[in-house]
Amino acid sequence: MFNLRYPGGIWLILAGHILSQFTLALATDPQRCVIKRTEDPEVDDSTAILHTVKKCSRNSIIEFTPGNYSLFTPVSFLGLDNVTFLLNGNIILPSNITRVQVEINSTLNQPATYAIPWIYIQGTNVQVIGSESFEFGRFYSFGQQWWDLGIRTLRPHLATFNVTNGVLKNLKIIKPIAWGWSIPGQNIHISNHFVDAKPDNATRDDTISFPFNTDGFNLSGKNITVDGYYGHNGDDCVSVINGARDIVAKNGYCGFSSHGLSIGSLGRDGAVHTVENVLFKKWTMDGAVYGARFKSWTGGRGYGMNIAWEDITLVNVSTGVFITQNYYDQDKGPKPPNPSNSSTKIINIAFRNFKGGLGTSWTDGSCISDPCWNYVPGLDEPKAVILDLYPDTATNITLKEINIQPFNNPGGTPNVICDPAALSEAEESTLGFKCANGPFIPA
């Protein structure tokens, strides 16, 4: 265990994320299994892949050799024990949209966050290691055509990694249809991850070819480290969701139009959701809607506790720091009532050493409703900080070393949205800035 102390008395207690913890206990002489593939790109290799994985599900090294493997059918790899996948080739999903939708509509795969995964991996001591070559270790999903047509139904989650003691390394995700990797497992180390969800024919403000829901990771497990991420996303680069505990995500770059380094969403439909002990450190957010985000739904319950963002560089972002405890589907009507007067609680949350500049737009191409999904009252331009709090449910929020500037104005002062009436008692004295709509004034 190690402790990280933050301004305002916050202690983050995180499990030791040491690579040696993830050294897998392979047998002294593991069997080596090579997956055969056809040379015909129209032929499905799924059966051959499943056959080999089933035969080599214990104490094995399973190799995809250089070249392309057609994975035209969703697959589940269950009950793995001490298995290393060497992805020295590439995985190719169907390019035909209808074929993917039919498979997703009928698949028996295990469920993942938000969607059915095309690949489901479950077991103990499992590694998926991509090639050192940038040419291989890739997953091709042909998302561009989905984005061009604006199709947002029957989309797969690329993969779920439901493993105890696992490693993901050197994987390259090329044009995902939507969500990337879901990680509900525990004791996981992820490194050198690459995501290209940037449209070839659009900008971040384009509503036609916007890559909706192209999250990099949805983390719901325990004791997970992401160390080394480079991605162009149309949604969260890293989303930490219900059930997550002891998470470190560090050393990353988020480009195109990321929706940030996010907690949540939490508490939808009044659910009791919890997240605790999370650290985001050393990230560059380039063109993002949010740098750091905490999002919970109106009427939610549970809590987010001991969470910190540290050493974040902002380049042309819409909002540097964003917290809402009042989220709802704006495209489905007015804000719903909250008869229970409940909210997902915030306990010990810190933002430290944010530097950089705002962009020119407060939203992006994902804004297809009126009002926009990310609108809050008073949002008419990029903001340094937005605190959209539910009264008396957030304690020990601190912002320190915040140096965010307006677009093309290095010496200027950005604006914030903050209602002092929503702060808990004595919270303003430790907040780190003056809570009022208007200029950001450090306290």
Structure, explained:
The protein is mainly β. It has helices spanning 46-55, 97-106, 143-149, 428-431, and strands at 2-6, 10-14, 31-35, 58-64, 68-70, 75-87, 90-92, 117-130, 138-140, 157-169, 172-174, 181-183, 186-196, 217-219, 222-233, 238-240, 245-256, 261-266, 272-286, 290-297, 301-317, 319-327, 345-358, 383-388, 394-405, 415-418, 438-439. The protein is globular, with a radius of gyration of 22 Å. It has a 25-stranded mixed β-sheet that branches. The chain has a two-stranded antiparallel ribbon with strand order 1-2. The model is unreliable at 1-24 (pLDDT under 50). It is 7% helix and 48% strand. Strand 1 and strand 2 form a beta hairpin. The chain starts with a strand and ends with a strand. It has a single domain (2-29, 77-93, 102-439), classed as Pectate Lyase C-like (3 Solenoid), CATH 2.160.20.10.
